[in-house]
Amino acid sequence: GAVVSQHPSWVICKSGTSVKIECRSLDFQATTMFWYRQFPKQSLMLMATSNEGSKATYEQGVEKDKFLINHASLTLSTLTVTSAHPEDSSFYICSARWEGLLEQYFGPGTRLTVT
Amino acid sequence: KQEVTQIPAALSVPEGENLVLNCSFTDSAIYNLQWFRQDPGKGLTSLLLIQSSQREQTSGRLNASLDKSSGRSTLYIAASQPGDSATYLCAVIGGSQGNLIFGKGTKLSVKP
Fold first, then answer.
1. What 3-state DSSP class applies to A88?
2. How many Å separate Cα A74 from the centre of its chain?
3. How many CB atoms lie within 10 A of CB B56?
4. How does DSSP classify residue A110?
5. Predicted pLDDT at B95
6. Is B20 exposed, middle or buried (0-12, 13-18, 19+ CB in 10 A)?
7. pLDDT at A102
8. pLDDT for A53-108, tens place per residue?
């Protein structure tokens, strides 16, 4: 089956610093990648959709200047949380799919804690 | 706007029981519906995917049904085991970009 990895699996950073999370599709070319966020005891909420080679589309309420998404290749998308604050602490999960198929494959998630 | 609701929010059963988890969605115009399992602090494991033209899917002790017209899906777990303890998420593809819209999940606890 299709495998998606995320790195790091967890990260602790100080308030005001930036953190980059990588999402890789290991055995397929992901034309579309999604970034979700999950707060404790809440469900996953879509943050943004990125298509290879184009700008990401952000959901309402998600600051595009704060959450920078780059999908420069068919196997890699990155999410950079800039000037992180404690309220950004959450579980970030990416998913990927290839063109023409609706099924998404999820990464294992990244736990971000901002102190 | 598509909304997905899961009932109950939490469920505790003794080992061996059969159980049903419920999922409802407000907009019947979906491409597919997917059930996931999430263990604490972990990512998602896809359990079953039902395409909009299908009515059910089965995998081992799991059976998922889909009734688009009524906006409902159920996940049936037969002969539950302690290892089934996890949060079960229901999601539909409803966004214009093919993103998944998730319910809040049902936290299942199977007692030995």
1. helix
2. 15
3. 14
4. E
5. 62
6. exposed
7. 72
8. 888 999 999 999 999 999 888 899 999 999 999 999 999 999 998 877 778 899 99
CB pairs under 8 A between A and B: 52
Q: CB neighbours (10 Å) of residue B14?
A: 10
Phi and psi at residue A87, to the nearest 5°: -70, -10
B102·A34 Cβ contact <8 A: no
DSSP-assigned states of every residue in B58-101: EETTEEEEEETTTTEEEEEE-S--GGG-EEEEEEEE-STT--EE
Tokens 């303890």, located at residue = B85
Our CA-based measurement puts residue B67 at a distance from the nearest CA of chain A, in whole angstroms, of 19
**Kind of pairing, strands A90-97 and A76-81?**
unpaired
